[in-house]
């Protein structure tokens, strides 16, 4: 593959981005049957530079999705199976005693699986909080600190974690600080009858479909930088801000549903994620500026895991998506900066 060259003209860049995104999306669709909304949300988060939390029952292709994404991008992939006996050193690595070529003993660092471009944290809620915390620095700072030494991770870097929403025995729910480091939370549901038949047809024959390489690390980083250059008008950015403030109980923009059912709302990372995800969406819709609609359509995946419900919400069966939907409905999509 020849070195990637970014076009000088912004319109040409946007057109090329849509073309390259479509090429990656096509490779994912060759392997993954259905799950269109899941694939698109994961890809938008990937190009926005954010981590992804996939929630769904086993057997829906979550692991295959992550592996296929790494293959299409030609990126290093590592899978960590989180279990109760997993230790932090099993994730980030450790310093060991080894012999050099002269027969002398020396301390050498042995890298853990976190030193990859795409890391799959499978069933992340099965490990103890101590082990879960080993991911915190990597997810936010893209580095790990071991023995007082900080080691930077290769770029691009992305953590995609999975968890089963049904099996709660022997699990450790992710703390709010870790949930907040995921740009989006994606709910992976069951496929249709036709999709299940296609899965059976693909997986019970001898041939194995694999994704072709269509991108590399250099190009991925170039597109991530390009995404951040997309224009956002102040009143649109303020809409994202008001959405986040509206998730805070007792705030000036909070609807009754939030005041009644939410204990804690979204952090500022929620507003950042809304804007970055909306930037990618605007490019895919052939626009070089973010609209109110772009932000609103990203609200569920960005905010659902950042809302901490109270007991009354659980008792009444009010989930996070219903609350986010109400927040979007009541938040005015207009320029309120002059009156702020």
Condensed summary:
The chain has helices at 10-31, 36-48, 62-73, 88-92, 129-132, 136-141, 176-179, 193-203, 217-228, 234-246, 256-261, 268-284, 292-297, 299-303, 311-316, 320-330, and strands at 51-55, 77-81, 93-99, 105-111, 118-122, 143-146, 149-152, 158-163, 182-187, 262-264, 308-309. The chain is an alpha/beta fold and 340 residues long. The protein has a five-stranded parallel sheet with strand order 2-5-8-1-9.
What does this structure look like?
Helix 2 (36-48) packs across helix 12. It contains 16 helices and eleven strands. It has helices spanning 10-31, 36-48, 62-73, 88-92, 129-132, 136-141, 176-179, 193-203, 217-228, 234-246, 256-261, 268-284, 292-297, 299-303, 311-316, 320-330; strands spanning 51-55, 77-81, 93-99, 105-111, 118-122, 143-146, 149-152, 158-163, 182-187, 262-264, 308-309. The strands form four sheets. Strands 2-5-8-1-9 form a five-stranded parallel beta sheet. A two-stranded antiparallel ribbon has the order 3-4. It starts with 9 loop residues before the first helix and ends in a 10-residue tail after the last helix. The protein is globular. The chain is α/β, with parallel strands linked by helices. It folds into two domains: 10-86 and 112-211, 3-Layer(aba) Sandwich (Rossmann fold); 230-334, Helicase, Ruva Protein, domain 3, CATH 1.10.8.80. Strand 6 (143-146) and strand 7 (149-152) form a beta hairpin. 45% of the residues lie in helices and 16% in strands. The model has no long low-confidence stretch (mean pLDDT 85).
């Amino acid at each position: 593959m020849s070195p990637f060259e970014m076009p000088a003209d912004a319109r040409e860049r946007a057109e090329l981005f849509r073309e390259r995104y479509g090429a990656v999306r096509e490779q994912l669709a060759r392997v993954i049957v259905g799950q269109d909304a899941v694939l698109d949300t994961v890809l938008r988060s990937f190009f926005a530079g954010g981590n992804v939390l996939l929630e769904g029952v086993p057997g829906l292709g979550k692991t295959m999705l992550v592996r296929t994404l790494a293959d299409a991008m030609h990126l290093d992939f590592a899978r960590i199976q989180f279990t109760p006996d997993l230790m932090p050193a099993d994730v980030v690595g450790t310093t060991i005693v080894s012999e050099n070529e002269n027969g002398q003993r020396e301390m050498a660092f042995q890298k853990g699986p976190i030193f990859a471009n795409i890391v799959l944290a499978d069933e992340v809620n099965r490990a103890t909080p101590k082990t879960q915390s080993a991911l915190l620095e990597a997810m936010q700072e893209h580095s790990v600190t071991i023995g007082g030494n900080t080691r930077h991770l290769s770029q691009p870097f992305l953590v995609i974690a999975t968890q089963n929403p049904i099996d709660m025995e022997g699990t450790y729910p992710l703390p709010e600080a870790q949930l907040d480091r995921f740009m989006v939370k994606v709910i992976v549901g069951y496929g249709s009858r036709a999709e299940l038949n296609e899965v059976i047809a693909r997986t019970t024959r001898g041939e194995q479909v694999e994704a072709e390489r269509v991108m590399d690390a250099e190009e991925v980083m170039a597109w991530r930088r390009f995404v951040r250059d997309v224009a956002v008008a102040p009143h649109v950015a303020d809409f994202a801000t008001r959405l986040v403030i509206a998730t805070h109980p007792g705030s000036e923009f909070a609807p009754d549903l939030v005041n009644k059912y939410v204990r804690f709302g979204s952090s500022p990372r929620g507003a950042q994620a809304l804007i970055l995800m909306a930037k990618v969406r605007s490019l895919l819709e052939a626009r070089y500026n973010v609209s109110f609609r772009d932000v609103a359509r990203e609200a569920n995946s960005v905010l659902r895991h950042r809302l901490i419900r109270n007991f009354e919400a659980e008792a009444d069966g009010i989930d996070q998506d219903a609350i986010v939907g109400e927040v979007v409905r009541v938040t005015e999509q207009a320029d309120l900066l002059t009156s702020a």
